[in-house]
Amino acid sequence: MARILTGIQSTGTPHLGNLLGAIRPAIELAHDDANDSFLFIADLHSLTQVKNGAELRHNTYAVAAAWLAFGLDTSRTVFYRQSDVPEVTELAWYLNCFFPYQRLTLAHSFKDKSARLEDVNGGLFSYPMLMAADILLYDADYVPVGKDQLQHLEMTRDVAARFNHRMGDTFVVPQEMTRTETMLIPGLDGAKMSKSKGNTLNVFDEPSALKKRINREITTDTTPLEDPKDPDSAVVWKLYQAIAGEAKGQAMAEKLRAGGYGWGHAKKDLLETIVDGYATERDEFNRRMADLGGLDAELSKGAAQAREVASSVLDRVRTKIGY
Ligand code: ADP
Ligand code: TRP
User: Fold this and answer.
1) 284, 68 contact by CB (below 8 A)
2) Which ligand has its closest atom nearest to the C-alpha of 25?
3) 51 CA distance to ligand 1 middle (Å)
4) What angle do CA 174, 177, 183 make, to 5 degrees?
5) Is the CB of 192 under 6 A from ligand 1?
6) Which of 46, 98, 123, 169 is at a distance of 20 to 30 A from 195, taking alpha carbons?
């Protein structure tokens, strides 16, 4: 059985792009009986950017509620909050001491973030070693990540190999699993949907808020109602197709090409698909967010399972180092 582990950034309520591009496929993978799966919310990593406790907690809850609302089964996956397993920070320290400073200075994500962010702290710099600790602490075999995380995975393999070489076989050297990015969900403005661009759709929003966002933010051209329209260039159609699926998407495309079906109709159909299609998930998300104690209990259960593995691996490492 292969152990699959991945971390989720906790930067707020996941949007439609996160749900279709990352959460859905990750849940499928986690539920595959051939795998043993670990999934955690990387709230220690978030501290590099967020310094407000209430916001840190809220983000974690929103992410956890979204995954659970989309059907993550915590009897089949160990689901926990990174900060509930403090062993990871100890391991991160050890790894920092086995990894050359010079290699850390080559991290793309640090260069990118230090150019963009105001708060350029030491945590941001050693971020890759905390991520390596996240992975090595659980003897993970495979780590599903997006392309932007490949260099961090490379550093994880590198530090594991350096430690093993120096101190004797200790860590499982993990492999990356790159998601084939089959789905690229456009944002309301047509660019890639992304939190940082303010062009997201939050499927957990109330229908009235969704309606406003769709009507106001999705741009369409001024083709008159009765004229034929080109679906391929329309965000409203792309979003509809991504949510409703191929067959319904084609049906809308035909209506647009035929004329007599306006952008207003398309927006109304899109809204309905989101409101109806995610009704169960929206209710479940709201139910979970109204019961933070329940979410804490769920995450604590995962943390207890995670700590069992973490403490035994950490003992192995301490012994190898000679403590
Ligand atoms: P954001 O760009 O909004 O900050 P993240 O970088 O936190 O999103 O993305 C988390 C995961 O969600 C990524 O690994 C990526 O696979 C997926 N994802 C994000 N935006 C999209 C999108 N527009 N379409 C498809 N998948 C996406
Ligand atoms: N750095 C990852 C991201 O930004 C999140 C993350 C933290 C992670 N620790 C991890 C991903 C361990 C995979 C494995 O998306």
Assistant:
1) yes
2) 1
3) 23
4) 160
5) yes
6) 123
Pocket of ligand 2 (CB under 6 A): 6-7, 9, 42, 45, 131, 134-135, 143, 145, 149
What does the pLDDT look like over 11-55, one tens digit per residue?
A: 889 999 999 988 998 999 999 999 999 999 999 999 999 999 999
Specify the length of the chain in residues: 323
**pLDDT value, residue 178:** 84
Question: In this structure, which amino acid lies at residue 236?
Answer: V
Q: How many of the other CB atoms lie within 10 Å of CB of 27?
A: 19
User: How many angstroms does the Cα of residue 19 sit away from the middle of ligand 1?
Assistant: 8
Select from 8, 11, 18, 70 the residue to mutate for testing ligand 1; criterion: most ligand atoms less than 8 Å from CB.
18
The finding on whether 96 has its CB within 6 A of some atom of ligand 1 is: no
Nearest Cα neighbor of 302 from 27, 119, 41 is 41
Region 148-173: what's the mean pLDDT? 97
Gap between the Cα atoms of 152 and 129, Å rounded: 8
In the structure, what pLDDT confidence band is assigned to residue 184 with cuts at 50, 70 and 90? confident
The two three-digit tokens of residue 118, written as one number: 């105001």
pTM for the model? 0.94
The alpha carbon of 255 and the centre of ligand 2 are apart by a number of angstroms equal to: 42
Ligand 1 pocket member 183 (CB < 6 A): yes
Domains in the chain, CATH or no CATH each? 2-184+292-321 (3.40.50.620), 205-277 (1.10.240.10)
Q: How far apart are CA 234 and CA 269, in angstroms?
A: 14
Contact (CB, 8 A) for 4 and 29: yes
Helix, strand, coil percentages (3-state) for the chain, rounded to 5, are: 60, 10, 30
